[in-house]
Amino acid sequence: MAKKKQATPMQKDYQIRAKKLEPKRKVGINILRAFISGGSICALAQLLQIFFINVFHFDESKAGNPATAVIIFLAALLTGLGRYDQIAQWAGAGTAVPITGFANSIASAAIEHRSEGFVLGVGGNMFKIAGPVIVFGTFAAFVVAIIKLVFQALGG
Question: In the chain, what is the straight-line distance between the N-terminal and C-terminal CA atoms, in Å?
């Protein structure tokens, strides 16, 4: 195991000065903003689900799919219009955690690389950020399914 290199007195002095000048984070207000924005996104999705149930007579289990698609479309549209980043600046993690954050990451990568062409630019780069999310999400679903099967086999 490698030893940790000791900081020089000048480096220690710099770290102390930098710590003093670092702005204090407003944790409480950031949590509140994330809660409000994330909750609002989820409430909108719930209203959309109720809309699809009542207007198009979807089953409750199937109404979530078009509601999710609308939320993803809105996030991608707001990203394309340059508004999503403004909302996310205020909301913080409240827009990053729901599926809207995932849609934003794909859409913004596609927009950023569109000048390189549709195949190598957009297609090749938009999943660089989203790819790990897909892989780990799929792996997590697999692990949860195995755990569920084990508990069912044990009679639980």
Answer: 44
Give the closest residue to 97 by CA, choosing from 36, 26, 27.
Answer: 36
Rounded CA-CA distance 98/87 in Å is 14
If one counts every other C-beta atom within 10 angstroms of the C-beta of residue 141, the result is 10
Question: pTM to 2 decimals?
Answer: 0.72
Burial of 78 (0-12, 13-18, 19+ CB in 10 A): buried
Question: How far is the C-alpha of 54 from the C-alpha of 64, rounded, in Å?
Answer: 13
**Distance between CA atoms of 121 and 28, rounded to whole angstroms?**
40
Contacts of 107-114 with CB under 8 Å at 24 or more apart are: 107/75, 107/76, 107/79, 107/80, 108/79, 108/84, 111/79, 111/80
Please give the structure tokens belonging to residue 143: 């692990």
Q: What is the pLDDT of residues 93-135, one digit of tens each?
A: 999 877 898 899 888 888 888 888 888 788 878 877 777 878 8
Dist CA 97 CA 83 (whole Å): 17
pLDDT band at 65 (very low <50, low <70, confident <90, very high): very high
Contact 104, 95 (CB under 8 A): yes
| Encoded tokens for 83 | 């508004």
